[in-house]
Design goal:
It contains 18 helices and 13 strands. It is α/β, with parallel strands linked by helices. It has a domain at 41-296: Alpha-Beta Complex (Amidase signature (AS) enzymes). The radius of gyration is 22 Å and the shape is globular.
């Protein structure tokens, strides 16, 4: 594990001394500094920037406070195990951000502490492991999204725990468990599932251990944990955000995306990480579709928008009905037009093909990824499988690696049958599925059950989840689906729901379930 904050004391003290020495000559004109509180840990990005600009807090104050909270809550106390590693250079970055505010050079995310899922590379002293014990050394350079966050001034606070290999080692894998980090707990109900591979990112943000986090999703891995822990989560359109430097599952379905406590924070993070990247060919169109997503949050922007509600899809799943009902009530009160009980054209054939398609893509993508991690001793999928077998008492203690083994037998991405099935899946899920439904009813977006995320994943289309209410100890959320490049519309709708629901709560770490009635 990364040294805890107490072991960073010498460098932190030095940084704090330098920060105080750099105080402006007319410090009496600035409001008095305060000790960072629990309330500060839950400030939005805009709230933190205002506190920094007023001189009430500094990025160094907040970084040290978050590190203390990780020590007290994640490593001790409820022991969430949501943070797999803290950044030993976080205080240095925080000092630089503090200086930027004093010098008037702060930018959009200067001083905002953000966690990254531990399959997103950082070219620093932290490791990038996808939760596996396989990777002993740090990556050589930042992932593109990491570099964009640093350029915007964000402080990379650490790495978040995850379902090992992003839940793609076994069909029996455990949500939130990795050999490196243990099992992530849901901070609202320690007995409940954190639901998805970006569980550490979600748990940490919900528990006030960072202002925001990045997760990654192939199918359900951002929106699932966000929904389970009362957060806003967005999986962007495939090709809007670069995947370079992220441990892959499927280049046709993978994306990084924000996990935050508000739609405004999600929009701010998305604005920073989106854009074309010459090292990721699928992002070639991204710059043409960029938007200042923070401008999509006008109070009355949802008025007149048409939103369809898909009640039934794939199987009879009633878990999300109450959240859909709450969202519909709010949207109609704000002037949106809701078309209920919309039927999506049949997508069963596409969904049935999904696992075999992803196995082929994983075989190709993980080989390319491991080959470029030249600092690591093991660089093929065969070697990874052998490593797990040799470390079975640590790596295979809960479940196996049959998906890795099946991937070895999958055809290549140039196999004609694979190419035909992938094209069919995208067509059936996208133009003939989601797009046809939107066009038939003249809709801006869809509300639908969790199972609909499989269709959106195949199409490469965006998904947004927003919390709506609580049932017992646990938050409930609604899922919004749109066509390609429709992030701004989804954020507009999500913001309207959020303002009406006001559903985020701070977790209380309930340890045991209520008695059955």
């Amino acid at each position: 594990m990364t040294p805890l904050p107490s072991r960073l004391a010498p460098c932190l003290a030095t940084a704090l001394t330098l920060a105080l020495a750099a105080a402006p000559a007319h410090a009496q004109d600035i409001p008095a500094r305060r000790t960072a509180t629990v309330d500060d840990a839950y400030l939005s990005i805009a709230g933190l920037r205002q506190a920094y600009a007023r001189g009430e807090l500094t990025p160094l104050d907040m970084t040290l406070s978050f590190l203390d909270r990780i020590n007290a809550i994640d490593r001790a106390g409820p022991t969430l195990r949501s943070v797999i590693e803290t950044n030993p250079d976080a205080a240095v970055a925080a000092h630089a951000a503090t200086q930027a505010y004093r010098n008037g050079t702060a930018t959009s995310l200067t001083g905002i502490p953000i966690l990254l899922k531990d399959n997103i590379e950082t070219g620093d002293r932290m490791r990038t492991t996808a939760g596996s014990l396989l990777f002993p050394l740090p990556a050589r350079q930042d992932a593109t999204v990491t570099a964009k966050l640093r350029e915007a001034g964000a402080i990379i606070l650490g790495k978040a725990n995850l379902s090992e290999w992003a839940n793609f080692r076994s069909m029996m894998s455990m949500h939130g468990w990795s050999a490196r980090g243990g099992t992530t707990l849901n901070p609202f109900a320690l007995y409940a599932t954190p639901f998805g591979s970006s569980s550490g990112s979600g748990a940490a943000v919900a528990a006030g251990l960072a202002t925001a986090a990045l997760g990654t999703e192939t199918q359900g891995s951002i929106i699932g944990p966000a929904m389970a822990m009362g957060l806003v989560g967005m999986k962007p359109t495939i090709g809007l955000v670069s995947r370079t430097g992220i441990v892959p599952v499927s280049h046709m379905q993978d994306s990084a995306g924000p996990m935050t406590r508000s739609v405004a924070d999600a929009a701010a993070v998305l604005k920073t990480i989106a854009g074309s990247d010459p090292t990721d060919p699928l992002t070639v169109e991204a710059d043409r579709h960029l938007s200042d997503y923070t401008l999509a949050l006008a109070a009355d922007a949802v008025r007149g928008m048409r939103i369809g509600v898909v009640r039934r899809h794939a199987f009879n799943d009633n878990r999300w009905g109450s959240a859909m009902d709450r969202a519909v009530e709010i949207l109609e009160s704000k002037g949106a037009i809701v078309v209920d009980n919309v039927e999506l054209p049949g997508t069963e054939v596409a969904v049935a093909d999904q696992l075999s398609l992803v196995l082929t893509e994983f075989k190709h993508d993980i080989a390319s990824y491991l080959a470029r991690r030249t600092e690591q001793p093991l660089r093929t999928l065969e070697q990874v499988i052998a490593f797990n077998e040799a470390e079975a008492d640590r790596e295979l203690i809960h479940f196996g690696q049959e998906l890795f083994e099946e991937a070895l037998l999958a055809p290549g991405i140039d196999d004609p049958e694979y190419v035909e099935r992938r094209l069919r899946a995208r067509r059936v899920a996208g133009p003939e599925g989601i797009d046809a439904t939107l066009a038939t009813h003249k809709l801006d977006a869809l509300i639908g059950p969790f199972s609909l995320n499989a269709v959106a994943a195949l199409a490469g289309y965006p998904i947004l989840t927003v919390p709506t209410h609580f049932e017992g100890d646990l938050p409930k959320g609604v899922m919004l689906y749109g066509t390609k490049w429709s992030e701004a519309k989804l954020l507009t709708i999500g913001h309207a729901i959020e303002q009406g629901a006001n559903a985020f709560r701070r977790p209380t770490f309930v340890a045991t379930p209520p008695p059955e009635s």
